[in-house]
Every structure is written in structure tokens, then in C-alpha cells.
Amino acid sequence: MNVAIILAAGKSERLNEIDVPKQLYVVNKVPLFLYSVLTFNQLDEIDAIYLVTNDECLPLIEKYLKVYTIEKLKGVILGGVTRQESVYLALRNIEKTVKNDDIILIHDAARPLISKETILANIEAVKIFEAVSTAIKVNDTVFNVKDDHVDHIVDRSCLYQAQTPQSFNYRLIKKAHEMAINNMVVANDDSALVRELGYDVHVVKGTTTNFKVTTIDDIKLLEMMIL
Ligand code: CTP
Ligand code: MG
């Protein structure tokens, strides 16, 4: 079984210009969180979707979910204070409904324009490699800045930007999160936790359109792309 966990439990603290958490921001009549949920739902290769949100967003999310039929959505789960905690709570919540060998694809709802190709590439790769992260190559020059001055140029030939989905079998990602709790390891993404356990993470190519809506500029970009 291939299971998507879609994360929409954040507080959008870097986006104060809009009056709702970004996952509820409506672009072209559709709230942001639904974009990726609908894309996962359309794929035959996806068997179940779990949406993770918070108390504040839950009432509106439930309202939207009554309007749209998302037949693969098997549950809405309350997340935690950090992204890492949200993932862990979701993994705990689905414990009894998934098998150890099931493939878990973890995706940020803040990346509304995830393509079907990227999701399928994750599924194919995780059948071969134990852990997979979507990523794109850094194309711009990257430099270190100190006090508003360029300090040094970073060699970007090996630099990639991590995206989601990131994919693992259930056993491995659960083990990585449990290790993190036991050892107080904090990481920005799931592949970092799996690497911490000593596993190799394979990279599949993402797309620039799979950007994460983080600031008001990203909202403007999304609106330019969609409207
Ligand atoms: N996320 C989550 N639970 C949290 C924090 C984040 O499910 N406690 C989710 C967000 O909803 C988002 C994804 O993780 O889809 C990536 O996080 P980010 O872009 O950082 O979103 P926020 O944490 O909401 O934004 P900010 O960091 O600006 O507050
Ligand atoms: Mg955040």
C-alpha cells in the first residue's frame, strides 16, 4: 500500500500578510492544502491519504472536505508544535492501519504544485532504495554573507535544495522518528532523520514549480502561475 501523509499543521509565521494560515489561503477558489491532496487523490498508485492539521484550521478544513469528495482521504490527524512532531503523531496515528512494508510519502501541503510525475518517481525509487527525497539542483550562485557583505562563494556544484515528497517504508520512518525522540535529535525534514540512523537517502529530481509557499512573494508567484 502507498500512503500519503500531507502536512498542514503549521502556523505560517513567516507569512503575516494574509489573514489565514497559508494552508487555508484560497487561490482560484481552492484552499492551498487541497491542491496537493487532490493531486495525490487522482493517482491510481496512491491508496490512502492522511491530512495533518491543527486545532485552529480543523473547522474550516472539515468544511472544505465536505464540499470535495476525496475518496482516498482516510483521516484528518492533529499535528504537533513542530513539523517533526506532526509527522511523528501521524505515524503513530496510522500505526494500526498500515503494514511495516507500506510506502509512506510525506508531503508539505505548502507545496501545492507537486506534479504527478514527481510522486510516481518517489514511488518507483523507494521500491529500490530505502529512503528517497525529492530535490532540485541549486542553479544560482550561493554565497555566505556577513554584515551585508559577501564573505565567500560556496561551491554549488554539489548543492541541492530539498523538497517533498520524501518517501520511506513505514518501519524505517517510524524507527527514525523514535530514534530522534530518544536522542533529542531535531531536523527540518524526514530524510535527515533517516540519515542520522545511518541509512542512505536517494535523490529524485523535483521541479521548480514544486516550491514551498513560505513568504508573501511565494503567494504572489503562485497567483501569477494559477490565475
Ligand atoms: N507543518 C506541520 N506542523 C508543524 C509545522 C509545519 O504540519 N508544526 C507543515 C506546514 O503546514 C507545511 C510544512 O510542514 O505544509 C512545511 O512547513 P513550513 O513551510 O515551515 O510551514 P509553517 O511552519 O506553517 O510556516 P512557518 O515556518 O513560516 O511558521
Ligand atoms: Mg515552519
As for the number of domains, it is 1
- Shape, principal axes of CA atoms: globular
Topology pattern, helix = H, strand = E: EEEHEHEHEHEEEEHHEH
Which secondary-structure class do the elements indicate?
Answer: alpha/beta
Keyphrases for this structure?
alpha/beta; 7-stranded mixed sheet; globular; binds magnesium ion; Spore Coat Polysaccharide Biosynthesis Protein SpsA, Chain A; 7 helices; 11 strands; binds cytidine-5'-triphosphate; single chain; 227 residues; two-stranded antiparallel sheet
What does this molecule look like?
The protein is built from seven helices and eleven strands. Helix content is 33%, strand content 27%. With 227 residues, the chain is an alpha/beta fold. The longest helix is centred in the C-terminal third of the chain and has 14 residues. The chain has a single domain, classed as Spore Coat Polysaccharide Biosynthesis Protein SpsA, Chain A (Alpha-Beta Complex), CATH 3.90.550. The strands form three sheets. Strands 5-4-1-6-10-7-11 form a seven-stranded mixed sheet, sandwiched between helices. The chain has a two-stranded antiparallel ribbon with strand order 2-3. Helix 3 crosses helix 5 and helix 5 packs across helix 6. The structure holds cytidine-5'-triphosphate (CTP) and magnesium ion. The site of cytidine-5'-triphosphate (CTP) has 21 residues, from strand 1 and helix 3.
